[in-house]
């Protein structure tokens, strides 16, 4: 029902000089969709209050509601062309009145977990990139047909929105920052197995894929009571996201999947001093795919007991600290974490404070950038003694048109349940690991054709040595001449 609407919106945005990429398309679609959703949410809340004999006070003032500025209607429910703005009038109203009004909510909100605060953050961080007011009017008219009334409508919108996130994720080398393949997320959740009542956390939530899939997993785990659904909605899923674009995408993605006021904070996770974390701040489950190699500040580095400028290693420390005793985690990370000398002390901390019970080695093209990654599964509270490895070997090359699917992970999940040793899975006893280097590299003992990738610094050292030897040979040749 809505698929053609999304395509028509993209076609209109493509015509506008201010929108040029998939990221622009989903960003502009998101803020408009968010305001349309707010209108429907406020109407539903008003009707519920009336049925209960109560009065509902709207969040948004009447002049700034969707039905006032975006789509005013005549008595018969059609667009009122006398009141509806278009062209420069519409663009000027959005820029000079609507945006400042909504951004001000950030200062007025009572707490960061309120819907008012989220409105304020979104419109403080983003901006309208649709320069042509006639295009904006057309997009609004198309979006007016999108409704959030029935579960079928929400499901279809959520599926289409996920598709747009995936397209954005595939559009650049930083795609993994926005999109972790959903079959992989579901596989990780099936290993970790969160329970209703757990507090689930993603400190680098991107488009909120892990939180959305955890919500679906728990919602479908049993027939939930009203109280249980209230717990799932408000006291289960928590996230942090630093960048404004994925922040609004995460909020909108969770809303479309049924979480009315997502507990996602707009914050730089690495700016927190983890030495100050208390038991009350911790979580039962952590699910994440943190960024790696990103720029970080010297002040952020001081927030961690093990000093490193690699963001992924900082996030691992963050997750260990934020995991409750007995808590369970599934974290995607670049495979060099297992062997890199700069990560030795972080690995030591992980192995001593947690049971790293499984490592899933993924093929190179699971993510659009082609980086080799692994998934670390660990429980906090007792040291690691033995690690179960599984190497995901597929008989095809992955890519945009041939992504990872559920069947690809079926054998991994089956083998994990029985901790089986197969051609693709094996155990490593920590007693057999060098205690100085703690090299946990994926080395499948059952495959003789496996390629072992060396560290870049080792390759550079060999090149320098060969250059020195070449220079020495050339010097001798010159002497003979």
Q: Which percent band covers the strand fraction?
A: 5-15%
User: Span from first to last CA?
Assistant: 82 Å
Unreliable stretches: none
Number of strands: 9
Radius of gyration: 26 Å
Bulk shape: globular
- Placed side by side, the strands forming the largest sheet appear as 3-2-1-4-5-7-6-8-9
As a percent range, the share of helical residues equals 40-55%
Overall pLDDT score: 89
The main sheet comes to: 9 strands, mixed
What string, H for helix and E for strand, traces the elements in order?
Answer: HHHHHHHHHHEHHEHEEHHEHEEEHEH
The count of helical stretches stands at 18
**Strand pairing plus helix content: what structural class?**
alpha/beta
Q: Features of this protein?
A:
single chain, 481 residues, alpha/beta, 9-stranded mixed sheet, 9 strands, 45% helix, globular
Describe the structure.
The protein is of the alpha/beta class. Helix content is 45%, strand content 12%. Helix 13 links the parallel strand 2 (237-241) and strand 3. The chain is globular and about 90 Å long. The N and C termini lie far apart (82 Å).
Gist of the model:
By secondary structure, the chain is an alpha/beta fold. Helices cover 45% and strands 12% of the residues.
Sequence-ordered SSE layout with sheet pairings:
Elements lengths: L2 H13 L6 H30 L14 H5 L16 H17 L1 H4 L6 H11 L7 H11 L7 H19 L5 H4 L3 H11 L7 E3 L6 H11 L6 H9 L2 E5 L2 H13 L6 E4 L16 E6 L9 H4 L9 H12 E12 L9 H10 E8 L11 E8 L5 E6 L18 H9 L6 E5 L26 H25 L1
Parallel strand pairs: 1-2, 1-4, 2-3, 4-5, 6-8
Antiparallel strand pairs: 5-7, 6-7, 8-9
Helix pairs in contact: 1-7, 2-13, 4-6, 4-7, 6-13, 10-11, 15-16
């Amino acid at each position: 029902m809505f698929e053609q609407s999304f395509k028509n919106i993209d076609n209109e945005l493509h015509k506008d000089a201010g929108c040029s990429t998939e990221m622009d398309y989903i960003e502009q679609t998101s803020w408009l969709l968010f305001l349309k959703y707010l209108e429907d949410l406020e109407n539903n809340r008003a009707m519920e209050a009336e049925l209960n004999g109560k009065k509902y006070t709207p969040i948004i003032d009447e002049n700034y509601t969707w039905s006032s500025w975006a789509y005013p209607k005549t008595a018969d429910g059609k667009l009122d062309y006398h009141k509806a703005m278009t062209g420069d009038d519409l663009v000027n109203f959005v820029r000079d009145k609507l945006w400042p009004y909504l951004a001000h909510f950030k200062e007025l909100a009572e707490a960061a977990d309120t819907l008012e605060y989220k409105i304020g953050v979104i419109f403080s961080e983003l901006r309208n990139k649709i320069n042509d007011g006639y295009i904006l009017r057309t997009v609004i008219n198309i979006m007016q047909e999108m409704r959030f009334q029935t579960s079928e409508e929400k499901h279809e919108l959520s599926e289409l929105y996920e598709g747009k996130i995936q397209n954005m994720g595939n559009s650049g080398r930083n795609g993994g920052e926005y999109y972790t393949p959903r079959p992989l997320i579901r596989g990780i959740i099936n290993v970790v197995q969160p329970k209703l009542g757990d507090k689930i956390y993603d400190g680098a939530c991107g488009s909120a894929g892990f939180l959305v899939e955890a919500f679906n997993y728990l919602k479908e785990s049993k027939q939930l009571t009203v109280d249980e659904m209230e717990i799932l909605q408000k006291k289960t899923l928590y996230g942090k996201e630093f960048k404004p674009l994925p922040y609004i995408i995460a909020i909108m993605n969770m809303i479309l999947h049924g979480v009315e006021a997502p507990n996602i904070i707009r914050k730089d996770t690495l700016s927190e001093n983890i030495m100050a974390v208390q038991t009350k701040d911790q979580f039962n489950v952590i699910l994440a795919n943190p960024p790696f190699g990103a720029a970080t500040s010297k002040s952020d580095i001081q927030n961690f007991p093990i000093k490193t400028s690699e963001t992924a290693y900082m996030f691992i420390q963050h997750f260990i600290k934020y995991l409750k005793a007995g808590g369970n985690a599934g974290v995607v990370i670049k495979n060099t974490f297992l062997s890199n000398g700069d990560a030795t002390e972080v690995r030591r901390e992980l192995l001593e404070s947690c049971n790293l019970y499984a490592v899933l080695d993924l093929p190179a093209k699971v993510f659009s950038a082609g980086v080799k990654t692994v998934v670390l599964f660990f429980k906090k509270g007792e040291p690691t003694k033995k690690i179960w490895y599984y190497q995901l070997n597929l008989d095809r090359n992955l890519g945009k048109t041939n992504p990872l699917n559920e069947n690809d992970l079926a054998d991994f999940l089956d083998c994990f349940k029985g901790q089986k040793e197969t051609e693709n899975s094996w155990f490593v006893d920590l007693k057999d690991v060098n205690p100085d280097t703690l090299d946990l590299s994926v080395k499948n003992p059952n495959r003789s054709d496996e390629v072992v990738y060396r560290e870049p610094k080792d390759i550079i050292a060999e090149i320098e040595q060969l250059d020195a030897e070449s220079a020495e040979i050339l010097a001798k040749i010159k002497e003979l001449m």
